[in-house]
């Protein structure tokens, strides 16, 4: 069964994938790729009413355009107090999309922990690092062996 969540989407014209596009924002039920339903993690639903959105002036590298326009987006999720800031691009619209994605990922991590998308990536990286460490120990020996080699012969390690 394909997972589906309620999303805010612009709807109107029927496209080939039986999705509706290009009207004001309305709540519609669309299938979500990679939604966590079978793994025991609950999907994160972010409502527009729960988000405070601010547009502030950018800072840092980027020149006059960045410093003159309010293209930096700050999203705050009121129920949890989680805040995300994005000024990756000079476009307000793109920054808003990126910030929303980051907010969903952050809330997913808070709500689902190790079962979230980021939690799974962290677990994968830890497993890879552990595997590398095991290979190095096998190839070069463990730290205990190296410490024993430094001791002079005939003395007891303390």
Quick overview:
With 158 residues, the chain is an alpha+beta fold. Helices cover 37% and strands 22% of the residues. It has four helices and seven strands; from the N terminus they run βββββαββααα.
**Main sheet record:** 3 strands, antiparallel
The third-level CATH topology of the largest domain is: Double Stranded RNA Binding Domain
Number of helices: 4
Question: Low-confidence spans: pLDDT under 50, at least 5 residues?
Answer: 1-32
Going by CATH, the architecture of the largest domain would be 2-Layer Sandwich
Strand content: 15-25%
What is the class of the largest domain in the CATH system? Alpha Beta
- How many discrete structural domains? 2
Shape: elongated
Pairing-aware structural class of the strands and helices? Answer: alpha+beta
Q: What are the salient characteristics of this protein?
A:
158 residues; alpha+beta; Double Stranded RNA Binding Domain; 2 domains; three-stranded antiparallel sheet; two-stranded antiparallel sheet; 4 helices; 7 strands; disordered N terminus
